Structure to design on (114 residues):
């Protein structure tokens, strides 16, 4: 399911529900319809930045473990590509983070499902 985020401060952002669900759940927001008000935007920005930083730390730990793991020669090409081409959480959340920053700066709300 797609969610279309709208704000007077930025262009629309379209995201898959499963990619933004973690953020909406943490903010106690419904995925079908909702609003992040200007007053809530600073908290939402801080939350997303925290999630991105935690994800980066987990990735660093995984990379360290992978470096110490056995040789990847037993992996097929699909598995090697899948491992290499994974989209990071920061890449997935950047558009909504950018929108929230613009909305906060212009004191606007972010809406979806309307």
């Amino acid at each position: 399911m797609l969610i279309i985020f709208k704000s007077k401060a930025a262009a629309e952002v379209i995201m898959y529900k499963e990619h933004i669900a973690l953020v909406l759940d943490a903010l106690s927001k419904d995925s079908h319809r909702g609003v992040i008000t200007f007053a809530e935007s600073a908290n939402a920005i801080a939350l997303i930045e925290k999630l991105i930083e935690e994800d980066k730390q987990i990735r660093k730990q995984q990379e360290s473990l992978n470096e110490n793991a056995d040789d990847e020669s037993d992996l097929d090409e699909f598995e090697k590509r899948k491992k290499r081409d994974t989209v990071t959480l920061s890449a997935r959340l950047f558009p909504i983070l950018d929108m929230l920053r613009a909305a906060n700066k212009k004191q606007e709300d972010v809406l979806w499902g309307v």
Q: What stands out?
A: The longest strand covers residues 10-16.
